[in-house]
Amino acid sequence: MQRLALALYSLALRLARPLLLRKLRRRARTEPGYALAVPERFGHYQQAQLRQDEEGGQGGLLVWIHAVSLGETRAAAILLRELRAQLPGMRLLLTNGTATGRAEGAKLLQGGDIQVWQPWDTPGAVRRFLRRFRPAIGILMETEIWPNLVAGCRAQGVPLVLANARLNAKSHAGARRLAWLSRPAYAGLAAVWAQTEQDAQRLRDLGAPVAGVFGNLKFDVQPSPELLAHGRAWRDATPRPVVLLASTREGEEAMWLEVIKQKMPPAPASQAQQAIKNEVNAPVQWLLVPRHPQRFDEVERLCRAAGLSVSRRSQWTGTPQPADVWLGDSMGEMTLYYGLAHVALLGGSFAPLGGQNLIEAAACGCPVVMGPHTFNFAEAACLAEEAGAAERVADMAEGVAAATRLAQDAPRRAASAGRCLAFGQAHRGAARATAGAVRQLLQATSVVANASSS
Q1: Is 72 annotated as catalytic?
Q2: pLDDT tens for each residue of 362-400
């Protein structure tokens, strides 16, 4: 039965290959990175890339990390620092699934490291990937479980683990409905290290070999001192408090604009846009940072259609330019934006999308106001609320009001910022524990000893 299920799944993915190629072409129109090295996704590698691998790959333990997108890649960066410390001389094989993840991952590479796309989960692509690179261990970040990838690693003798693992209630229910496919995949892992005990319970229910609950790697984030100082210098030079809409998702900027409109007194159509400008500019400076770069232009158009002037980060020279709305349209600068902001509204939490990670905001000392939808980071959100590092509200209207009040209350704001820093500090340690568990697993399979002796 298990073999039949895997065979049917594999057939479906092979038939879906034209759809994947079409999707990649469509995405490449707005994100050119999706057009890069497409054959890698099917286990075919260019000769130049292979020569680079061979030239740089003399000796050293090859540790494979799969981080599908931007958030997972940033978590992988935290773990990678500890892995390099505990496994001197290791080489990194990094796979990604999205263009933003791959671009961020390129910053992590050192001499002898390799970066390719995640193989499409068919037996052939997985087999070609594993035979070409022969990693000593595979580390999947957070949620990425692929049945053929798990089966292929078992067949090739590659221990495959799930690190910083999380599984929300919705995904757990979906996996249980597909238990004929998901259960063998989870059970086939060599180890799972969960973020929370609740995650661990759900994962165990699916047959996963949970070997530890280490917390969230992102608590070990080390914000760039340069970016943080840069943002704070801009904040100090801004006459009004800055409120950040952080990592917003589709629809949330429209929610924010609708709240602004509802707060205005009735006005003739000819005066409506000026009224919106007046309301936006009244107490605070608004800073919008969309989660996905392909939406930067869309958000600018939305604001301008409401009659608001927009100043984009990419056009700033020296200091932020005066405008009704600042638009954060750069990648890799969330630390700067959190340093610039006095308060942040948490994106993804006002639409039913599960929320974004608030840990980076806490590490930067930026208080957070979050909406009702935080199921992707449920425990972190609850812990932050209990510690006074975050405030929960029912909807965007309450969020705008709460953030504005906090931004204007300097003593309360300073106290909240201090609680944010203490909250982040209290939950560190997952990176060291996870790297240590990886090393122990490699030692148990004699890989570390063999690599050292060679």
Answers
A1: yes
A2: 999 999 999 999 998 888 999 999 999 999 999 999 999
- Mean pLDDT, residues 108-124: 95
Query: Count H helices, E strands: the chain?
Result: 21, 14
Exposure letters 318-332 (e unless 16+ CB within 10 A, then b): eebeebbbbbbbbee
- In this structure, are residues 261 and 276 in contact, taking their beta carbons and an 8 Å threshold? yes
Express each pLDDT in 227-273 by its tens digit. 999 999 999 999 999 999 999 999 999 999 999 888 655 555 555 56
For residue 47, report the phi and psi dihedrals to the nearest 5 degrees.
-60, -40
- Contact between 92 and 66 under an 8 Å Cβ cutoff? The reply is no
Locate 227 and state its tokens: 């970016």
Question: Could you report the per-residue pLDDT of 56-84, keeping only the tens digit for each?
Answer: 444 579 999 999 999 899 999 999 999 99
In the prediction, which pLDDT does 76 show?
97
Q: Structure tokens of 415?
A: 């106290």
Predicted local distance difference test score (pLDDT) of residue 453: 45
Q: For residue 321, what is the DSSP state?
A: P
Q: Annotated catalytic residue: which of 31, 72, 82, 360? A: 72
Whether the pTM exceeds 0.90: the reply is no
Strands 285-290 and 242-248: parallel
* Cβ burial 54-84 (10 Å sphere, 16+ → b, else e): eeeeeebbbbbbbbbbbbbbbbbbbbbebbb
Domains and CATH numbers, the chain: 18-215+429-453 (3.40.50.11720), 225-426 (3.40.50.2000)
Map tokens 């605070």 to a residue. Answer: 284
pLDDT over 80 (residue 281):
no
Which 8-state DSSP code applies to residue 127?
H
Q: What are the residues whose beta carbons fall under 8 Å from the beta carbon of 226, sequence distance 6 or more?
A: none
Reported residue count of the chain is: 454
Of 244, 222, 232, the C-alpha closest to 74 is 222
For 226-257, letters b (16+ CB in 10 Å) and e give ebbebbbebbeebeebbbbbbbbbeebbebbb
Amino acid at 148: N
